[in-house]
Structure formats: structure tokens, C-alpha cells
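The data are quoted verbatim here:
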Amino acid sequence: LYGGMVYQHGGDERSVVIELNSPKKLNSFLHTHTHTLRAHTVTVLFILTCVLVYVTLLEETPQDTTYNTKRGIVASILVFLCFGVTQAKDGPFTRPHPAYWRFWLCVSVVYELFLIFVLFQTVRDGRQFMKYIDPKLGVALPERDYGGNCLIYDPGNTTDPWHNIWDKMDGFVPAHFLGWYIKTLVIRDWWMCMIISVMFEFLEYSLEHQLPNFSECWWDHWIMDVLVCNGLGIYAGMKTLGWLSMKPYQWQGLWNIPTYKGKIKRMAFQFTPYSWVKFEWKPASNLRRWLAVLGIIFMFLLAELNTFYLKFVLWMPPEHYLVLLRLVFFVNVGGVAMREIYDFMDDPKFYRKLGQQAWLVAAITVTEFLIVVKYDPRTIMLPIPFFVTQCWFLGIVLILSWTLWRFFIRNALHEIHVYVDSSWKLMFISCPFYYFSNVICYHFFFFFFFSCSWYMV
């Protein structure tokens, strides 16, 4: 642990070196480290009890049933969050503080319970229930059509021939860039990010007969989305991943840093990872990893589609704060879930148990899709154009064919080849006839070559 200069935490590529130069600093660091990361269960319980005593004895309860119901629900959620933040199991992340990630784990539970409640309501009651959150909701909203005039340069508009491009420059452009920057930090693989980005554009093409919002111009799909917004976001994310993988993770206690500049820098780096693990998905290495990568891509695409379909079936405008809160939620839980999935695939200690945050994210994604199916089955069941069906059928057949070839047929042929090769070798070694025939042939060719050479000389 302590070798005069360093305190090392962990091992292999996940090791972190903490600079110390005396036993006193080591003890100071360990005390500060454990105190900072402590759950403070008694402190939180005391504060919570004081708040409840104040509300019970000193605050007069309003004579408003609706207000009291809302406040009671919010108070119940806050008490549950206090319990979860102090008592829930820690996940793989510790920065900026383990309580931060426990908080989002508990928020995941609350959100899943909310989705289950909405799922068990009628379509009318579920949409009207949203009015309790925001009175402006519960009203059908028309979807904006991003198609129409797809000319990049419109000569018919003398005022502004580039108006089609400027019309597409809404708030979703920086959202796409920032979203794919964060997704790249979550997935940590260029190929998977590009596949998901391109596949979602194909999904928009395939489902534009269901949601008008998916009807976009070709250059909006492939230039603005894939190349500009998504591509630049993925590029920036990969550059950040390269910096994080090369960054030396050497930590020093805050009180052991002599300068104020160093203390401020140390406080800023508290919001960076404690250590770094490079994701190596290797989907073609075995069938388990291949199916896991396919499942990750499928769940990513389903979560992306849920964003648009939930707005459509629950009558929420794209700029509503609930849409933004959902995105912020997935930003915080997605990284933890992906790390737990990677550990589930890569680390033998986690083979038999999927992480708690990954479990909740999968359940939330499926529940959101079930709400979409229940609230608007007519839109979901609209017949898909025949040529779109043909394309997806061909893609599925190709994936299944490659899977069978890579993990079954190829392995079987390799085993047959090894068996036949070993059988022939065994036969040549064990059979005296083949042995003597090889000797005779060897001497014959040697004598023939020697005779020809002598004749030529």
C-alpha cells in the first residue's frame, strides 16, 4: 500500500496512483477520502426527521386537496431518494461522488414506477394525467413536417435562396452534436457509434409514414445529421476518449496541495473519472459478445425512437422541459449502464448478474415502448411500404446468415479440417507401406536429380 512515495489503488489498467510522501499524509488522505465518500446516513436521517417535524408541528396544512396530493407525492419521492442515496449499493463510478450516482439510480426507480402507472391507465386518463404535471399538456399538438421543399439553393426565393438550410437550423442541431458527443463517451467505440447513427437515419426513412417528424430532406439526413452534427460529435468524443485514456490518473489529497491554483485544479478534476477502462467490445470474438453488441445497438435505437413516439402519444411539444429532463436523465444513467453491461460481458465476476442500473435502463426502455404501443396502436400498426419491408428483411437475413457462418458453420468446417488433417497424418505415420514408399520416392528423386546433374556436367 505505502511504499514511501505512492499509495496505489486497484490494479491492471484500472489502477490509480495517489502521490504521497509521508505516513502522515497517507493517514490524512485516507481519513479525508473515507469521510468524503461516506454516505452520512445518520446526518441525512437527522435532517429528514427535522423537516418532517417542522411540517407536522409548525406548518399549517392548506385546505386544497389537489395541492396536498401533489405535495404528498413529491415528499414521498424525496424521502425515497434520501433513503436510496444513503443506503443503495454503489455502482462502478465514484466521481464526483458515489452519492451522485446513487441518486440517479433512485431516480431511475421513480421514473420506472411513473411509467408503470401511466401504462396501467386508459389512453384518455393517461394523457389528461399529464396536466397534473403541467396544465399546458393534455392537448393534441401537430407534428412539424421537416420535408417539403428540399432544394439546398432555392432560386425562386430571391430574398434568401438558402432559406431551407436556415429553417433547419433549430435547437436540435446543437442537441444532435452534444448528444452524440456524450453517446461516444458512453459507448467508447467509433464503429458502434457510426452504426447506430446511420441505422437511426434508416429508421427515420422507414417510419416517416408513421411520424411526420421523420420526413426530412435527403441532405438533412446524411449531410446535416450523419456527417455534420453526429459526425463532429463522434469525432470530438473520440478525441476526448483519447485524452482520457492517456491521462495519468495520479491523485493527491486536497489539503496536501500547497498552492491555491493546485487546489482549484484538483477540485475541477474531481469531476473527471477516478480511473479509466478502455472498452474493447470485440463483437466477432464469440457468440455471447456478438449477441450482446446487437442487443446494445437495438436498445439504443429503441430508446432513440421512444423519444419521438412518447412526445407523439402523450402530446408533448418538442421544446417542453419534460423532454429535456428525460434526455438529462439518460445522459446520467447511460454511462453507468454501459459500464455495467461491459463488465457483464468482459469480467468473469459479473457473468451471472447484470448491473442494477443496466437492468433499470432496459426496463425503462421497454416500458416506454409498451406505452407507445398501448396509447396509439393504430400508428404503430400502419402498414410499412413494401420496399422498406424488403430492405429490412434482406438486412435481417444477412445478419442471421453471417451469424450462422461465423459462429457455427465456420467452426464446424474448421473442426472437420483439423480432424481430417490429423487422421491423414496418423495414417501416414502408422502405416509401414506409406513409410517405405516415402523413403523409396525420396531416394528415387534424389538419384534422378543427381543423374541429371552429372549428365549435364
The chain is about 70% helix and 0% strand. Residues 1-22, 28-32, 433-450, 452-457 have pLDDT under 50 and may be disordered.
